[in-house]
Amino acid sequence: MMNFQKLLKLRADKLLLLSLVILLTNCSKEEKQKSYLAKVNDSYLTREELASLADTSNLDASEKNALIRDWIYNEVLYQKAVDEGITENENFDKILQNSYRKLAISMLMQKVYDEAEIEFKTSDLLSYYEKNKNYFIHPEDVYLINQARFKDELTAIKFREIAVESNWEKAKQFFEKNNSVIFIESGNLKTLYEIYPLEVSDAVRYLFPEEISIVIRDKQVQYNVVQLVKKFPAYEQLPFDIIQREVEKRFIAEQKSKYFENFLKELYSKSEIIIKERY
């Protein structure tokens, strides 16, 4: 009798646990159904999942829509692949295992790179710059610019007035906590193709050094102000003080690559490696 009661209690506990799992699953599904951005059959794309696909903080509406459209295309194709039995195919498993290994290797490499601490002085960067001058010659005209973008025109006009009357940095300090500011940047080195939006890029072409543009309204109904600090002609070596950040990035990247090579050599030396045949 006692064993029978225990059996009944065990079954009741299992049923309760199963009910909780189903309830939580349904709640999760209902939550997704309430807040989803896109849906393909029973698959939902939420804001959180969209953010996991890319950094959406600096994307405009058209770029976010393109991201959602890509997710829909991929989801339609994936669901069709499942229906066709692709995921049950033996080759699929082999490719999956190979991808699994490559992903693990890639994540290890990223971990090693992230943990590598590279110490250097400005003199090291200067020495690197002098030895690798060809790295810092651009095949196109390059523009050193300051750029700001605002939500409303009035704030953009006021910002421009202060920048013209005083200077860009003073205006930046004055407006950096203003709610209308989307961004205010200084000292960006870009080709025309890298300057966004197109309306700002077109304006930069015709600015004189140190000149500040009028307020430029773009297609997203945002308001831009841009200053051309200096233009560097194509194939001219860029001065160290202008591209120090670029020099630093390249220097650190090369030093980290050397660090990884040493890490790999050490792993190799500590492992039992046998090559029975050479081709």
List the helices and strands and how they pair.
Blueprint: H1 2-35, E1 36-40, E2 43-46, H2 47-53, H3 61-83, H4 90-115, H5 122-131, E3 142-150, H6 153-165, H7 168-175, E4 181-190, H8 198-205, E5 216-217, E6 223-232, H9 240-270
Antiparallel strand pairs: 1-2, 3-4, 3-6, 5-6
Helix pairs in contact: 5-9, 6-7
C-alpha Rg, in Å? Answer: 29 Å
Q: Per the principal axes of the C-alpha atoms, what is the gross shape?
A: flat
Mean pLDDT: 87
Which class do the helix and strand fractions yield?
alpha+beta
Spans of at least 5 consecutive residues whose pLDDT stays below 50 are 1-12, 14-21
CATH architecture tag of one domain: Roll
Count of DSSP strands: 6
- The name of the CATH topology of one domain is Chitinase A, domain 3
> Which strands sit side by side, in order, in the main sheet?
4-3-6-5
Strand content: 5-15%
SSE sequence, one letter per element: HEEHHHHEHHEHEEH
- Fraction of residues in H or I helices: 55-70%
* Number of DSSP helical runs: 9
Largest sheet: 4 strands, antiparallel
What's the level 1 CATH class of one domain?
Answer: Alpha Beta
Distance between the termini: 74 Å
